[in-house]
Amino acid sequence: MPPPFEPLTLVHVVFSSRIAGGELHCIDLANAQAALGHRVHVIGTAGSAVAGALSPAVRFHGLKLPLMRGWRVAALARKLGADVCHGHLGPACKAVAQARSASRIGTLHVGYKPHHHALMDGLVCVNRAQHDGLPRDRAGLASLIYNWAPERNAQVVAMRTDLRVELGLTPDQLLVGSVGRLQRAKGMDLLVAAFKAHAPANAVLAILGEGPDRAMLEDMAAGDPRVRLLGFRSDVDQALKSFDLFVSASREEAFPLAILEAMRAGRPVLSTATQGPREMLAGQPARLVGVGDADLLGRAMAEELARLRRLEASERRVSYATAAYDRSNAVARTLGFYRDVMLHRAAGAERFEDEEEAIAA
Fold this sequence. Notes:
The chain is α/β, with parallel strands linked by helices. The protein folds into two domains: about 10-150 and about 325-360, Glycogen Phosphorylase B (Rossmann fold); about 160-315, Rossmann fold (3-Layer(aba) Sandwich), CATH 3.40.50.2000. The chain contains 15 helices and 13 strands. The protein has helices at about 20-35, 50-55, 70-80, 90-95, 115, 130, 155, 165, 190-200, 215-220, 235-240, 255-265, 275-280, 295-310, 325-360; strands at about 10-15, 40-45, 60-65, 85-90, 105, 120-125, 140-145, 175-180, 205-210, 225-230, 245-250, 270, 285-290.
């Protein structure tokens, strides 16, 4: 095993073609590790948007077909001399499980699933409930390391997006916003229903993101010009600054980066009380409501908008405690966890060899 400060060969695996929260975390972690001098590779799907977001110091390996991905990941990790193979999201972790030549790490961006994560040598949990809920009989190590909100690149930040101007809003109109993939887990259908039923007539809802539920959401929004589906945006940080209220209507969330980005932008936050937000927003100046109830969400939204309307625009900014989500600290702790897993794995191999020798004797 390399000495404590010798550069490692690290292989990240993520199979998504689009960039959402888990993919963004993988990209930023790989870029940060490469900037520290480690040899970093990312294995993904050929043509994935992930490749274009990686720094020049990170090498991307695109797999053209999904066939035998586990075997191919294992072979490539072995060829690259990987010290660590780190999977992001379930299918990637399932493939990483076959890379036995390296220490196998998985990040629980969603949650623990035995068929994806049981064979990992180490698991990174993104909230305390995940960590405390892991099976007691797991052989591998686990560590609680919070995600962070990656900084956007300088070119995007320089765009200085003003979403209110883009949408043609007047000063008296309040803008409700949400960011996320358009799929059932994110609850965008609940958000649209809640907004249409309870938001004031001059409020506007902007949803940033793409996904399989777009057509359904367009049907739900039909006839209501207040609901705007803006698709994928690379200027999320800038767009968030235009929101008067950020809403997460998710049915399940382990660690929503969009909420952390809204906190960084100083936006008031209303969220369903899923696993991640319950921990992230505990003791913070934010509001939680029950999961899966569009009427309850809508009433809470109306109350928050009424409260915000009584404030001047400059008074709507919120300050959050975000020290726990520091990027540098999280990257350092992740590298430290890699070392712990490598040591634990090496010790296990030595014990196995000692037992084999004892049996042979």
